[in-house]
Structures
1.
Amino acid sequence: MPLVLHLHPLSSYCHKVLIGLYEMATPFTLQTVNLQDAAARADYLKLSPFGKIPALSDTKRNVVINESSTILEYAGLHYPGQAQLIPRDADAAINVRMWDRFLDMYLHQPMQRVVAEKFRPDGAHDPFGEKEARASIRRAYDVLEKRLGETSHPGGDAFSLADCAAAPALFYAQAAEPFADSHPRIARYFDSLLARPSYARTLDEAKPFLKYFPLHDSLPARFKN
């Protein structure tokens, strides 16, 4: 099969892409990236100059696609499957892309900033930056909670690219800033995401690696073993 997804099973942005590919039932090959290995890292930097994961290689068309949203849009364009993550209607598509960007920029990225603090050595911590990131997460919760009072999914009435962004962002963000008691709509929505086969499969594949997540003890009980 021509598509090769270069990823790490613990990466939230890799989860985003996996959810979408599983929704579309698009065939692909998994290639785990070990950025701690010098040779493997050097090879991967040829695909992703900043070393970010995931990356998608298309051996048939001889192209490499970076960035999670673009990867899913590319797969949907050139290897369409059983689900459509971006609507054909132009206005509906803009709305989905807007919520995808919102979730990545104001929830997903701040979550990663909070997690990154756990890896900083003594003397290199950024408490002000972490405070800002946590405030962004809480504000994103408020906006998403309101949105879910208007429609069943962030991007509209159907599952879309925006849901692919929401699932891993909420999964990891809840460990830093819990939402179950303060945002009931998000809690119900997140439960529906966990029950969705594409995301359940993604988390099953990630489960052996979740023990390495620095906020592992704050994850739901069923993901701690």
2.
Amino acid sequence: MQHKVKPMGHPMHPMLVVYPLGLLTLSPVFDIVHWITGNGYWSTVAFWMIAAGTLGGLLAAVTGTIDWLGIPAGTRAKTVGLIHGAGNYLILILFIVSWLTRLNAQANPPVIAYVLTFLGAVLFMATGYLGGELTLHFGIGIEPGANVNASSPFSRLAVSEQKAASKEPVVS
């Protein structure tokens, strides 16, 4: 199953997610620097990182949605893709609301702006994991014959641990 948006033969979605992921997850770091130093410049930097990250995130969301529409219905990959995409849309909303609350107070935003930014950055870990599963586990966008119904990675882990445990010598 190949990506649907591929100008010049290269899939766009994986290229577009890098910048929003970096910008949006780094913005709370600049907020922390603001708290430590008391210098509002750092929250202003976070404000602009959120602005650029959400714009890039919207582009990534569009290409990701188009790719998701190409995954066969009723498959595990379609379900994981839905959770991945819905989670990322939620994250974008969190960052957009954080940005809007910072609009008139860039150097000293309200607490809710920080809460939304940190929550969005934490949620990125989960949705990023799911995006990795789509690519690395299911083969979405990599292999023409992707295994869209591959078993859960957690069930694979449990089976491999059981096999390893059954090979261990019994100590009395």
3.
Amino acid sequence: MLSDGSELPYALFLGVPIHKAPAVAVSAGMTENGWIPVNPLTSETRLPGVYAVGDVTSVGTPKAGVFAEGAARVVAQEIASQVRGTPALGSYDGKGSCYIEFGHGKVGRVDVQFLSGTPPTGTFQTPTEALTAEKGLFGSTRAARWFRGPASAR
């Protein structure tokens, strides 16, 4: 609904930018069919000690930040383990949650898991006020951690 109370003539618009590996990765020979192939459980490329996460990979999860964040957490733990000379703590499971805006202050959530060894699974939580508040907290904690928060928030 627009500020003047009128509504636009469509019910839903989804816009997704083109996802592709950057030219530097392509020119470095890191891509196959436009993506950087990685081990889906560790995000390691075919170059030992080199990792890739997010929209540039062929990991098999959606191109959403929550999945890149989960993969990056595993990569950080892997690198820390290598530096410390300790065993790696775990692998990436492809879990993530995506919030869905329904308008009029209604937010639902889908929880999915892509890399459990079985076909992807997911559950849908119907829109509630609690999920609307949860989505707001999710966004604000990420913004604080990534862009302006103290080290304790990171």
4.
Amino acid sequence: MDFFQNVVVEYLRANRATFVNTEYCIQVNPGTNPDKSGPHWYCDAVAVNIAQKRCSLCEVSYSKTLTALGKRLTQWRNHWPEICAALRRDSGFGQDWLIEPHVFIPSELGPTLDRHLDRLPKIAGHDPQMPKPKVTFLESVLPWKYRSWDRASEKVA
């Protein structure tokens, strides 16, 4: 796990209703070996907020180009119904749970992410299946920016 992924995980865990599973294998087709069963991805972290019935597929990047993140979001968009079905099958989320992508990037890369999203209009919020990725800037997850025991003072998105 990348160093900054740990910072993001601690930020997510500071919300008492959120539970985090790191390096989560999203396996579209059931099977004993994800490498042989079909499309699958290792997500940096899956954050499950029980109070909000929300499952966030969290990806952390500080690559200047965000190319890998753009590819990941494109792959997820292309398989979104199957990804949601796999998460419901493997983790027991009900149909009433919101499943969403959530990216963590440096604020200076916000325009770069916007360009990626603009080139992929279905990711930019026009695809009725995959929600537009929630974006949190890495600068806001630094431990001195929030209360580490509950994050109660934050606005809920």
